[in-house]
Amino acid sequence: MSAYDLVVIGGGPAGLAAAVEAYDNGVESILIIERDRELGGILMQCIHNGFGLHHFKEELTGPAYAERFINMLKAKGIDYKIDTMVAEITKDKRIKTMSASDGITWVQAKAIVLAMGCRERTRGAISIPGSRPAGVFTAGTAQRYINMEGYMVGERVFILGSGDIGLIMARRMTLEGAKVLGVAEIMPHSNGLTRNIVQCLDDFEIPLYLSHTIIDIRGKDRLTGITIAQVDEKMQPIEGTEEAIECDTLLLSVGLIPENEISRALGVAIDPRTKGPRVNQYMETSLEGVFACGNVVHVHDLVDYVTEESIRAGRNAAAFIKGRQFKAVEAYTMTTPGEGIGYIVPQEICEQSAAETVTLLFRVKKTYKNARINVFGDGEKIKSLKKMHLAPGEMERVDLKLEKVYQQLTVEVEA
Amino acid sequence: MFDVTIIGAGVIGASVASYLSKYQLRVVVLERENDVACGTSKANTGLVHAGYDTHAGTVKAAMNVRGNQLYEAESKRLKFPFRKIGSLVVALNDEEYEVVESLFENGKVLGIEGLEILDGNAVKAMEPSITAEPVGALFAPTAGITEPWEVTMAYMEHAMDNGVALKLNYAVSQIQKTSDGFLINDEIETKLIVNCAGVHADDLYGMVTETPEFKIIPRRGQYYLLDKETEGFVNHTIFPTPTKMGKGIVVAPTIDGNILVGPDSEDLPQSMKEATETTRENLTALKENAAHMCGNIPFHLNITNFSGMRAEPDTGDFIIEMSKVDGFVNVAGIKSPGLSSAPAIAERVEGIVKQAFVSLLPNEDYVDTRRERIKFNHLDEAAQAALMRKDPRYGRIICRCEMITEGEIVDAIHRNCGGRTLNGIKRRVRPGAGRCQGGFCGPRVMEILSRELNLPLTAIVQEGKDAYILTKETKVEEEA
Q1: Which helix (H) or strand (E) holds B238?
Q2: Domain holding A51: CATH number?
Q3: Residue from B115, B118, B117, B112 nearest B55 by CA
Q4: Does the pLDDT of residue A386 top 70, yes or no?
Q5: B395 vs A35: CB contact, 8 Å cut-off?
Q6: Does the beta-carbon distance from B395 to A104 stay under 8 Å?
Q7: Has residue A336 got a pLDDT over 60?
Q8: pTM recorded for the entire structure
Q9: Are residues A235 and A300 in the same domain?
Q10: Is the CB of residue B377 less than 8 Å from the CB of residue B402?
Q11: Contacts of A129 in chain B (CB under 8 A)
Q12: Same domain flag for A248 and A130
């Protein structure tokens, strides 16, 4: 069995940033394990630009963003294994891997960073009725076929879900010569970034059908058409608003789910709101020395934010390896989503000092205009921010310097 | 000239082919789809029924009871999964309880072993997910679960291993009676035809007689299939009390660890035999109906919906006989419990065929068993390591939801009755059957299919022959 100080599960943006940062904090014995055939994760299929504005202060494509980290990794000589699957992690931090080149191996780690990312919700998850023809893809899978494998998936395209991947794919399919007939969104607002709605739909005159969903899928072998309908406040289709659309391709961009099969099997506590591990402000999960970052914790809208969170995980994993015990404190603060808030990361704060900034990341449940975000410590308002615009598609943050120990921090929207 | 032509490669056609492969007979199976098990055999509840609800004296009862008795041995011989988990028919009021009692009596007459009537408390203790208040239930310990498409493939592969031919993408459009048999589509000569055409058995029979004695009503049933995370939600197959429309909506574990909820029951016109779509109305109603029994089914963990078409005969019973057209054997109206009955039906057809040929010699090269599929994830670590040393492709995980290796996929392509489509591979070894529904592994499986079959990626289909996935290679990058 080989041994490393730090083993990072996943070589996407989260794992790469965590590994690089851990190295810069004095831990040189690091192994990244990646199941795909190259490092970089989903960034490698995101060939559009718009990445890096926050972190690198310049606009990069997905692969270019990943490459910066991969170059740092290689320059530092950090070990990585690709085409390798993690089959199991034990509580004493032994990791079972499998690959065609090395067979089964076990690695002992002192600390682990979970960075497995997320997967797309599928047709089944939202039970779209109809037949089951070819031509129905999750947007990310279509993106992989087009950008990585170099094949088109269809000619007349409809998209369900206005999340960012759906919007990006509306533009991408158009640029590849397909006719994108529209994007339907069941909510009365888009879940995507405003800039993507402008640049990917408006600029190409692709209609966005808000408060609409798909109620039928047709075609025996290949998709031949769908029916969309408007929905009421309870998301139920309104009779008489049905519209049949002929298309050969349907892309689904209906949400992402953190991939925590390994975390669950390991026994890491999962937050039912985020579907990711519960973490403290050091990105440490419920198991000591097991950290998590990126989309495996909660789904981010920008890779730059993934990087920021992963740097925190990498730095603290390094500190742990060097002997710091984050869980050796008595006072824990729980964070609680209040009115209008969907979730908060971190779920707990395990040590508080006025010298340290604690960042709360969260999402609102619906759109607000001219609202306030209030933070309460045990009922006492400790911070209030004015917000012109709040939307579920855009992650919000509050930085706090906590001057006393609270049992509970609550975040609320004041409309 | 073939001796026997079997039309339809569902579980019935396949099991008949397997049983006939014992003899020196030239047998061909014609299937209009591009894979076996593409009709009812791929879209049903996967249950091996005990048989207590079939009426003594019917063909169906004889087949179900015998089929159930054969299943365990068949599963061991041909290496398909089967587990006797037992079923409950739950009565929620006194009227239903009377039905349960009559099922118990009927089962005793049929000689079904182990039947027991449980009281309400015992039912709740056995299945805490039942939120209704049962008066009692019939417990049938011999009821089991299996993987219906794998049963079909096992039979067909075994038949092919023993010399039976399979023609896929071959639709039968006309049959002529000849002096010594039949001429199919003006090209295939055969002495005997065995009609295993499922919901189309009446249409096929109509090609040789103007006065068919039966009609097949397509009866559609829709389903929810829940994520493996729900494993253990119920541990037995839970039926409501049956009605004349069938056995009712079942909540059942699948052999792979999912939970299956369905089917509802909807008779469709003859013109809708292919209408295997799901509908919003039915899926909604199905949820509500299932909730009468189990109020907390985790439908939010749904991974897919599907519907299957059952071949409901207007005669009410299975039709397994040499028809009035000499040489034309009908195996028709095989609705539920068709899967349970398959081995018994094959046995009966074997008898009919033996009678039709004056003397049948045994197939001297006959092999009774089938090579087991390797299920990598079910092996212990030492066995996994040994396998990887022999063939490193067993070290490469292609499907992470179900932990399926490249080695298993390659084997599933190259066996007899191998998979040629994305869904064909999914049914054989399960990549894409898990929670991501092929989002990650789809492109990898396509690549393997393309490489192993020496076909361009654009020629790989999802299911039917026109179910193309990719249209063309993208142009050279010029995107700004």
Answers
A1: strand B237-240
A2: 3.50.50.60
A3: B112
A4: yes
A5: no
A6: yes
A7: yes
A8: 0.93
A9: no
A10: yes
A11: 277-280, 282-283, 305
A12: yes
Contact yes or no for B145/B252 (Cβ under 8 A): yes
Q: What is the mean pLDDT of residues A133-143?
A: 96
State the smallest CA–CA distance between residue A232 and chain B in angstroms: 16
Contact A100 B400 (CB under 8 A): no
Which one of the listed residues B49, B158, B200, B236 is annotated catalytic?
B49
Which 8-state DSSP code applies to residue B189?
Answer: E
Over residues B153-157, the mean pLDDT reads 98
Q: How many CB atoms lie within 10 A of CB B456?
A: 11
Instruction: For residue B49, give the H/E element and its range.
Output: none
Give the count of beta carbons closer than 10 Å to the beta carbon of residue B380: 8
Q: Which domain holds residue A377?
A: 329-415
Taking only residues 281 to 320 of chain B, the set having a beta carbon closer than 8 angstroms to any beta carbon of chain A reads: 282-283, 299, 302-306
What sign results for the dihedral spanned by CA atoms B35, B40, B41, B46? positive
Number of domains in chain A: 3
- Interstrand relation of B2-7 and A408-414 (parallel, antiparallel or unpaired): unpaired
Domain ranges of chain B: 84-143+216-309, 376-459
Residue B49: active-site member: yes
Number of inter-chain CB pairs under 8 A, A vs B: 150
Q: Does B388 touch chain A (CB under 8 A)?
A: yes
Contact (Cβ atoms closer than 8 angstroms) between residue B95 and residue B54: no
pLDDT the model gives residue A1:
86
Per-position b or e across B77-111, b if 16+ CB within 10 A of its CB: ebbbbbebbbbbbbbbeeebbebbeebbebbeebe
pLDDT tens for B246-294 read 889 999 999 999 999 999 999 999 999 999 999 999 999 999 999 999 9
- How close is the nearest chain B Cα to the Cα of A303, in Å? 20
Domain B376-459 CATH class label: mainly alpha
Q: Is the Cβ–Cβ distance between A104 and A98 less than 8 Å? A: yes
- pLDDT reported for residue B108: 95
Q: Report the residue from A122, A131, A177 with minimal CB separation from B276.
A: A131
Q: Which CATH number goes with the domain that contains A370?
A: 2.60.40
Distance from CA of B225 to the nearest CA of A (A): 9
**Contact between B395 and A101 using a beta-carbon 8 Å cutoff:** yes
ipTM over 0.90: yes
B contacts of A261 (beta carbons < 8 Å): 400-401
CB-CB neighbors (< 8 A) of B461 in chain A: 134, 221
Of A127, A217, A221, the CB nearest to B463: A221
Q: How far is A350 from chain B (nearest CA, A)?
A: 31
Assigned CATH topology for domain B84-143+216-309: D-Amino Acid Oxidase; Chain A, domain 2 (3.30.9)
With a cut of 60, say whether residue B182 has pLDDT above it. Answer: yes
Could A119 and B457 be called an inter-chain contact, meaning their C-beta atoms sit closer than 8 Å? no
Distance CA B461, CA B423 (A): 8
Do A183 and A208 reside in the same domain of the chain?
yes
Confidence of residue B480 (pLDDT cuts 50, 70, 90): very low
Rounded mean pLDDT of chain A? Answer: 94
